Amino acid sequence: MSMLGLLCLLFALIAALILVLYGLQRRELRSIEELSQQLLRIAIGGRFPERLDLGSDKPEIAGLVTAVNHLLARVARGAERDATQAPRLFADLGDRIHEAVLVHGEVILYANRQFASFVGVDRVDLVGRRLADLVPPEYSELVSENIRRRWQGNRPPSATKSTWSGYRAS
Hints:
Elements: H1 3-43, H2 59-96, E1 101-104, E2 107-111, H3 113-119, H4 123-126, H5 137-151, H6 161-164
Antiparallel strand pairs: 1-2
C-alpha cells in the first residue's frame, strides 16, 4: 500500500470516529431536549406528574432526572399540606373579618360567626342555603339579581339605607 492509501485509510477512521461521537452527542442532546420539554409543559400550567420518565444511559442525565423527580415529590407534598391547611386558614381569616360570607352561585359555602349572628341563624345551618332565602321575600329577587350581576362581572346597583331598613333574616 502506498503512503496515500494509508493516509486515506487514517482519515476514513478519523471521520468514522467523529461520526460516532457526533451520534452519541446527538442522543444526549435529544434526552436533554425531551427533559426540557417535559419541564416546560409543567412550568406553563401542566399537571404535576408523579415522576418524569427519561431513558438515558448517561449518569449525568439520569442524576438530573432523579433530582427533578425529588423536587416534584417535594412540591406534591407541599401542595397536599397546603390543601389540608387551607380550610383552617380560611376559617381563621373569615372569623376575623366582619360579616364574611362565601357564596358560590347562590349557595352559601362558608359563613363566619359575625354573619351568622347578624342574620340570627347558627353558622352551620347557613351552609348550603341560598343567600336570597335569608332576606324578606320582597328583597329575595333583588339579592338574586345582584348575585347574577356579580357573576356576569357587573357591579350591582348601590343600595341606600332606606332600601335595606328593617332588614332581618327570615
